[in-house]
What does this fold into?
Amino acid sequence: MRNNGTRQNTAGRELSERERYRRQMEKKRESLKKKRRNITIVLVILVLAIGAGCYTLYQNSYDGIVNKGYQAIKNQEYSSAESFFNQAIGKNDKKSEAYVGLSQVYIRQDRVDDAADLFNDTIAKQPDNADIYEAYMEFCVNNDRKTLIPLVLDEAQDSIRKKLSDYIIAVPEFNLDDEEVYDDVQQLELSAGKNTIQYTTDQTDPLQSGKSYDGPIQLEEGENVIRAVALDKRGIPGMSVEKTYVIEFPVEDAPAVSPSTGQYESAHPIEIKVPDGYEAYYTMDGEDPTTASTKYSGPVDMPEGETLFKAILVSGGGRVSGITTRNYMLEK
It folds into this structure.
């Protein structure tokens, strides 16, 4: 009996020890859970605080203010949008996004000239800011101001021109030397690679009133002023180029006049031989003839008495020959 009692006491103690251990472990687990919950809550609070701080920082940053400006444009709140973009420019006047946004505000209000002035004023203050130049070029392309591009880039620094070379269109090439004087009609050919060409022959702006080049241009006698400009497939033009070609046909030394100088007892018709492409002018009073003198249209009656007859030829290009002089004495 004693042994049985001893075994029972021992088993009871073991159960009690296990129960105590189980309870201790449960307490530890509950404590760990509580710590984890507290840590999680703290972390959530920290994340929310950091997020709120980041959001506040973003809202007051350059990008955040620009974003608010675009949101105001979307809501057609143009006054607020203008204020936001100006605020962003005040924070960083070197970045282009706020200028683009402000130009959009002007465009939405049909103030395209103000948008162009904005970019002009900005590049005047920041001539080395390629981002502003590029934004200006995109504005010109999107708002039918492409003709401004070559003028703006022509005055830009070399570094800007290099970076924006895609907007620089080469001038057309001419196959004739404009320093040479030609003695016959010429065929002038223009080339601009894959770009198209517009040209004029009356010294007007080829972008405004030019013809599309589709073959050689015939140059006639006299001065031929050719202005040409190349345009790429986007319609962006380059600088226009002007060349003057001079064609001078050989001019007769002096007209042939008959009859020759002499005394006559009967009237002979006075004739001037007029080559093709010329007109003749004459005087009968001894004065040198000009294009304001009498134009020759056929034989002239020889006057009675002494007559000093002088004649010239004038080419189609207005060049004047030498003077032929005949002295007639008609005594009937």
